[in-house]
Backbone:
């Protein structure tokens, strides 16, 4: 985990913890959360920290825990503020939905501190340490960057072993994005209770242990039996994490087991399609009782990484690094080139054909996109 300099204290509130005592939740942040006063007539222009008896517009710094349309919920210490975005922020180069995303640290001006919830205006989104984003289809056609979350320590990919069946290529792509955006990748395999012990389970272990060998944390879990949930709680504590995966894999159910007071809505997987019904409809960040924050997110089917040069993609496959040393060409893309160490490793069974296939497919997607609009 990356080191960050300062600490800020956020407290869980009653609603989120359902009376399980007082919870001082420490999250890492580069910024303290001061309440500073600005001059009444020119909010936003006064120097932070300026003192003026007539001043009324207090400012706070907080973390976005939910972002929908024009509104965001911002957590400042133990209070959740409802905030709008200052108009000028919507005009920048970023698409409106990526201006302030879950996990963003923001500076807000108080509009009404006595409101229920208190209200404010987001004046500034502070620079991000990192983010996880993918390409998403735009309603009006084409594709656009969708930032799923900012300032996170790890992305926790949740798959179910059955109902719905796991998608290996989703994991391959998500882990590439994690490498690209410098976020730790964790893999949770849920519903292990649905896989009979014996050859079926052994086959799954063979597939998924490979990711463990690559250095990713792999957790076998069941929200039904509780298996693996303690291990999950341990890796989530004191970190800021994003749970991500297809609809119906059990993200919300797992969180409810890990922190019962959350009472997240969960739903049935439809029998016909074996797919979930998108019970969770937005990404939301919750303080964890023992420290840290976890974001539950709506199910997504695919994950298209972006913003990388085709030649850089090979660097995001940890298993290609050592065999890649023996490629004849320094810029070998492990595709059509002769005397390729990576392809040799595939032939010798050291790298699964599937992994190499996932790499080639991603490469082709990025090249196609680059040909259309430039690599971004
Ligand atoms: N057998 C079994 N069923 C589970 C397990 N975990 C979750 N489920 C069931 O899977 C279904 C879907 O769970 P959710 O938690 O709503 O799934 P989700 O990933 O949050 O789905 P979205 O919010 O739509 O993205 C529910 O009916 C759960 O009861 C598990 O470990 N074993
Ligand atoms: Mg859910
Ligand atoms: Zn090669």
Residues:
């Amino acid at each position: 985990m990356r080191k960050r300099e300062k600490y800020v204290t956020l407290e869980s509130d009653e609603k989120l913890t359902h009376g399980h005592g007082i919870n001082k939740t420490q999250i890492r942040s580069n910024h303290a959360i001061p309440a500073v006063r600005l001059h009444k007539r020119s909010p936003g222009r006064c120097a932070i920290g300026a003192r003026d008896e007539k001043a009324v517009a207090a400012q706070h710094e907080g973390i976005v825990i939910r972002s929908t349309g024009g509104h965001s919920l911002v957590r400042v210490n133990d209070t959740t503020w409802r905030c709008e975005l200052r108009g000028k922020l919507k005009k920048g180069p970023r698409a409106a939905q990526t201006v302030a995303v879950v996990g963003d640290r923001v500076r807000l001006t108080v509009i009404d501190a006595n409101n229920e919830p208190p209200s404010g205006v987001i004046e500034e989104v502070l620079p991000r340490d990192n983010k996880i984003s993918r390409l998403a289809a735009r309603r009006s056609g084409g594709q656009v960057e969708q930032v799923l979350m900012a300032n996170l320590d790890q992305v926790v990919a949740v798959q179910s072993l059955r109902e719905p069946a796991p998608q290996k290529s989703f994991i391959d792509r998500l882990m590439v994005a994690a490498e690209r955006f410098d976020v730790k990748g964790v893999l949770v395999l849920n519903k292990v209770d649905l896989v009979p012990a014996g050859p079926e389970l052994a086959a799954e272990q063979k597939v998924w242990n490979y990711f463990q060998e690559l250095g990713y944390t792999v957790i076998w879990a069941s929200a039904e039996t509780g298996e693996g949930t303690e291990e999950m709680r341990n890796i989530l504590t004191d970190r800021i994490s994003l749970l991500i995966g297809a609809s119906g894999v059990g993200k919300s159910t797992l969180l409810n087991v890990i922190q019962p007071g959350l009472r997240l809505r969960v739903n049935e997987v439809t029998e016909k399609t074996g797919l979930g019904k998108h019970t969770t409809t937005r990404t939301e960040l919750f303080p964890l009782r023992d420290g840290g924050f976890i974001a539950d997110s709506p199910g997504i089917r695919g994950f298209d990484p972006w913003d990388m040069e085709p030649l850089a993609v090979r660097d995001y496959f940890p298993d290609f690094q050592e065999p890649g040393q023996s490629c004849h060409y320094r810029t070998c893309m492990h595709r059509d080139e002769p005397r390729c160490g990576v392809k040799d490793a595939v032939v010798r069974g050291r790298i699964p054909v599937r992994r190499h296939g996932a790499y080639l497919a991603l490469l082709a997607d990025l090249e196609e996109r680059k040909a259309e609009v430039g690599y971004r």
